[in-house]
Design brief:
single chain; Aminopeptidase; 4 helices; alpha+beta; 41% helix; globular
């Protein structure tokens, strides 16, 4: 599986598929909507990560950065190794000055974070 961070402006085709994965997370979080999220990503206030396997997008994740902290805010997908994706995001962000990572989400993320922490 390959992981990419989308460069703004995000193409309408990529955005449409990403929103199919992210819509349930947006609804659960209740903090934003698709239009505001698009504005944030295209303004560089949030980062859209897309995970691809077998030529199709299998997941989309959204992060925000606050100083040395990268926060995983929204995600959705299917058939993904979430721990591997988080490790890749962490590896990508370290050379850019990130030393802390946080995650919002359901209880299942606690297990995934333990897996990431244990390597």
């Amino acid at each position: 599986m390959q992981l990419f961070v989308a460069n703004p402006p995000v193409s309408p085709e990529v955005w449409a598929v990403a929103m199919a994965w992210l819509a349930p997370a947006i609804d659960r979080a209740g903090e934003t909507d698709e239009n505001e999220l698009m504005r944030m990503v295209n303004a560089g206030e949030a980062q859209l990560w897309t995970a691809w396997g077998s030529g199709v997008m299998q997941a989309a994740l959204v992060t925000t950065r606050h100083g040395d902290t990268l926060h995983l805010w929204l995600c959705g997908g299917f058939g993904c190794d979430w721990a591997m994706l988080l490790r890749r995001i962490m590896d990508f962000s370290r050379p850019h000055g990130v030393t802390r990572w946080t995650v919002d989400g359901r209880k299942g993320w606690q297990r995934i974070l333990k897996e990431v922490a244990n390597g």
